[in-house]
Design a protein that fits this description.
This protein is of the alpha/beta class and 413 residues long. It contains 14 helices and 17 strands. The structure holds ligand C6P.
Length: 413
């Protein structure tokens, strides 16, 4: 295991106070905090070699290009992609999924075809498919969750018909923390000839990931949830899948030869990276995966399992709390969504903020799951990361008790 207090010392924001209390940051599923090493990588780029990439022969441009491409290689190694050519830089998971929907899928999904998703998708992995299905006269089939909030694998299998072109599913739910058996699901989808897209926004930051082992066609994730800056993310695509995709944006960098009449496309993955890219943040993402790799993703996962086990135990003390998500920690990440009887999550979030505790409240961009499946307008959600501690879980529980007293839901002690 790693030294938790040394890790915490790397994150400047963790030493700040909020409303006169030490910050307890439990909104990591929304975005993670950044270690000094990532912040310094950004400063270093802007102070020493700020320049455009793939364009200049001068020293700064060569340095920037080298660091930018090195970052791509680091991320490729981090997820065990066969090579960096399989990684397209995008802004975030949402853009990665839309890129597939607007290119690969738009050309392959037609009337009568089927796309399979699950009941727990984030809007980013639901709305693009819902809209594509509408445009193309295709059908969107939704695999159910079991009573335990794990994916009902039998239902998923049942929906995989020979006309299924794509199975697009989350690897970890941002609301329930549910981890899906992505490799098994991908194998099942392949058996009917469907392609596979994995929304790995919540899994790449928290679990060891091997995209070759998962054997998916597409894997989408965001840098900002894994210690990297905002505005940078990745689409991993299997070689054949990328080869088959037409570019989405046309312009500089994505072309090889241009005449007034026509143009030919650049090599992979640059074909999908039109215009000046987000150089600094890509380099920052390289620094982020260096940091995660040095800790070891098995250690990150182990730490979060123990913290989640502890949090779930402490939540049992709160009679008023309905906690969602699987009890089986093999199928659960560090996310605890809950509802307090008679208390609106938004009010709860505000009271917790006065105690320095940052959680997210709302539908978490998974409105159908929260409203139709969990049957509540919103939930409160605490989400953990590699730097969170049991003392912070205690602070959360204490703040919740305070909120209950404040709203007259518990005896004043
Ligand atoms: N979930 C949350 O608070 P972007 O915004 O593109 O980086 O990530 C979208 C996304 C896609 N899939 C899953 C499973 C996600 O959790 C998210 C982002 C954040 O839960 C912000 S809504």
């Amino acid at each position: 295991m790693y030294d938790l207090s040394a890790v915490r010392a790397d994150f400047p924001v963790l030493s700040r106070q909020v409303n006169g209390k030490p910050l307890v940051y439990l909104d990591n599923a929304a975005t993670s905090q950044k270690p000094r090493q990532v912040i310094e990588a950004l400063v270093d780029y802007y102070e020493r070699y700020n320049s455009n990439v793939h364009r200049g022969v001068h020293t700064l441009s060569v340095e920037a290009t080298d660091r930018y491409e090195e970052a791509r290689e680091k991320v490729a190694r981090f997820i065990n992609a066969p090579s960096a050519e399989h990684l397209v830089w995008v802004r975030n998971t949402t853009e990665a999924i839309n890129l597939v929907a607007k290119t690969w899928a738009a050309e392959r999904v037609g009337p009568g075809d089927r796309i399979v998703v699950t009941e727990m998708e984030h809007h980013s992995n639901l709305v693009p498919w819902q809209q594509l299905a509408k445009e193309r006269g295709a059908e969107l089939a939704i695999a159910a969750l079991g009573a335990d909030h794990k994916l009902d694998e039998a239902d998923f299998e049942r929906l995989l018909t020979p006309n299924t072109r794509l199975a697009a599913f989350t690897h970890m739910s941002n609301v329930l923390g549910t981890i899906t058996p992505a490799k098994r699901l991908a194998e099942s989808a392949r058996r009917v000839g469907a392609a596979v897209l994995i929304d790995a926004a919540q899994s790449v930051p928290h679990l060891p990931i091997d995209v070759q082992d998962l054997d998916a066609d597409f894997v989408a994730f965001s840098g900002h949830k894994m210690l990297a800056p905002t505005g940078i993310g990745c689409l991993y695509a299997r070689g054949e899948a990328l080869e088959q995709m037409q570019p989405f944006l046309h312009g500089g960098e994505m072309v090889l030869e241009v005449t007034y009449e026509d143009a030919s496309w650049n090599y992979l993955p640059m074909r999908f990276e039109a215009g000046t890219p987000n150089i600094a943040d890509a380099i920052g993402m390289g620094a982020a995966v260096d940091y995660l790799a040095a800790l070891g993703m098995e250690n990150v996962r182990r730490h979060e399992v123990e913290l989640t086990r502890y949090a779930l135990r402490r939540f049992e003390e709160l009679e008023e709390a309905v906690v969602y998500g699987p009890a089986d920690l093999d199928y659960r990440g560090g996310v605890v969504s809950f509802h307090m009887e008679g208390l609106h999550p938004h009010d709860l979030g505000q009271v917790l903020d006065t105690e320095g505790v940052a959680i997210r409240t709302g539908h978490h961009c998974a409105m159908p799951l929260v409203r139709s499946r969990l049957n509540v307008p919103a939930t409160a959600r605490a989400s953990f990361y590699l730097y969170n501690t049991e003392e912070e879980v205690d602070a959360l529980i204490e703040a919740l008790n305070k909120a209950l007293r404040y709203f007259g839901r518990a005896p004043r002690s």
